[in-house]
Amino acid sequence: MDLGFFTMPMHPLDKDWRISLKEDREAFVLADELGFNEAYVGEHITDQAENITSAAAFLAWVAAATKRIKLGTGTVNMPNTHPATVAATIAMLDHMLDGRLIFGISPGGLLSDAELFGNLDADRNAIFLEAINQVLQIWASEPPYDIVGKYWNISTQKTLMADIGQGYIARPLQRPHPPIVVTAVAPFSKGVTEAAARGWDPISANFLMPAWVKTHWPRYVEGCERAGRTADPANWRVAKSVFVARDTATAKAYATDPDSPYVYYYRSLFAKLKRSGRIELFKTRRDQADDEVTLEAICDKLIIWGTPESVADQLRAFQDEVGQFGTLLYAGKDWKDRELARQSMILMAEQVMPRLNAGTSSRPKAAE
To answer: Which residues touch 235 (CB under 8 Å, ≥6 apart)?
Structure first.
């Protein structure tokens, strides 16, 4: 199993934005130094807590400070940006990273962003599909472009000057494009099937109950079979909220106290999903009553914490429950305590993963 990093960082509202951005960047640099295989960052425009407004801009800031780690958009919310802008931005970023970019995409999940961009009541899945199709068509085409859609039209026919390069949209360094991943945030996600059928791979979100994470693998198999490709667990990424400390008392306090950055993260998500009618993501069964879903139950089920030995055992149990997957994405949180946050990542890489991988060969494969 590989180790990666995924963050849609949720910071205290009164935290200096400069500090939170620097700490988020430091986490990526540390992940690179520790040998994490890949790292993703989310983006939201209208969220004071989740305050990285552009994944591409953030990764461009990180690019020169990292050496080998693959960096991913986690995700570009396709309905909120013109496809030509996405195509050009991702192409340049892939060159800046010398081909280390992973292109994460989604319809976007923050409803205030959807309202801002005028698609709150629209079919965002349809807009998403048109947008990514147009991005891929741009990269596969020569100018002048003549791409007509329901939501966007793309053309440089009237202004093309091929001899001096005007009217041309850049292509990524990786051909035909960087690897594409999609975030899976719903039980029995049909999006996983459609993505797999197109050669894309899934990331199961760290705010899904294990019972729902497990449902993503059969959907992935279904899409791969449709496309005639092998469904390899190595291509499945699963994000998980993990905190590791040298002693149990420190781990418990930092992960579970009321003012813990982990509890803060799930408290905010719980409020968003409950108010928007999507609380089912936190249910352990589909017929569970809404009032049975509590913050305490969510944190108890979704946060893994402890010493390296304990965390490795808990992650083995989690893998037994959901099936084998290829990359564990350590979910980044606010660095309330910089040293403890850094130490957790170090212990994860240097002590938890060796223990976990020592037993991987005997673990069951993802359930068919």
So the answer is: 201, 220, 326
Per-domain residue ranges of the chain: 2-249+309-362
Q: How many residues does the chain have?
A: 368
Tokens representing 334 are: 């606010």
**Residue 109: both structure tokens together:** 């999940």
- 300 CB neighbour count, 10 Å cutoff: 10
Least Cα distance to 211 among 186, 181, 176, 192 occurs for: 186
pLDDT surpassing 80 at residue 368: no
CA distance 138 to 142: 8
**Where does 23-94 show beta strands of DSSP type E?**
38-41, 70-73, 76-77
Taking every pair of C-alpha atoms in the chain, what is the biggest distance, in angstroms? 68
Taking the C-alpha atoms of residue 275 and residue 24, their distance in angstroms, rounded to an integer, is: 28
* Alpha-carbon gap, residue 312 to 23, rounded angstroms: 26
How many other β-carbons are positioned within 10 Å of the β-carbon of residue 225? Answer: 14
* Nearest one of 360, 119, 60, 78 to 233, comparing CA atoms: 360
Q: How far apart are CA 31 and CA 41, in angstroms?
A: 13
Residues 6+ apart with CB under 8 A from 66: 28, 29, 32, 100
Judge if pTM exceeds 0.90.
yes
d(CA 224, CA 157): 38
**What are the DSSP E strand ranges found in the chain?**
2-7, 38-41, 70-73, 76-77, 101-106, 146-148, 153-155, 180-184, 201-204, 237-244, 303-306, 327-331
Contact 192, 223 (CB under 8 A): yes
Q: What span, in angstroms and rounded, lies between the C-alpha atoms of 110 and 87?
A: 22
CATH 3.30.710.10 fits 2-249+309-362, yes or no: no
> pLDDT tens-digit profile of 55-91?
999 999 999 999 999 999 999 999 999 999 999 999 9
Structure tokens at 34: 């520790």
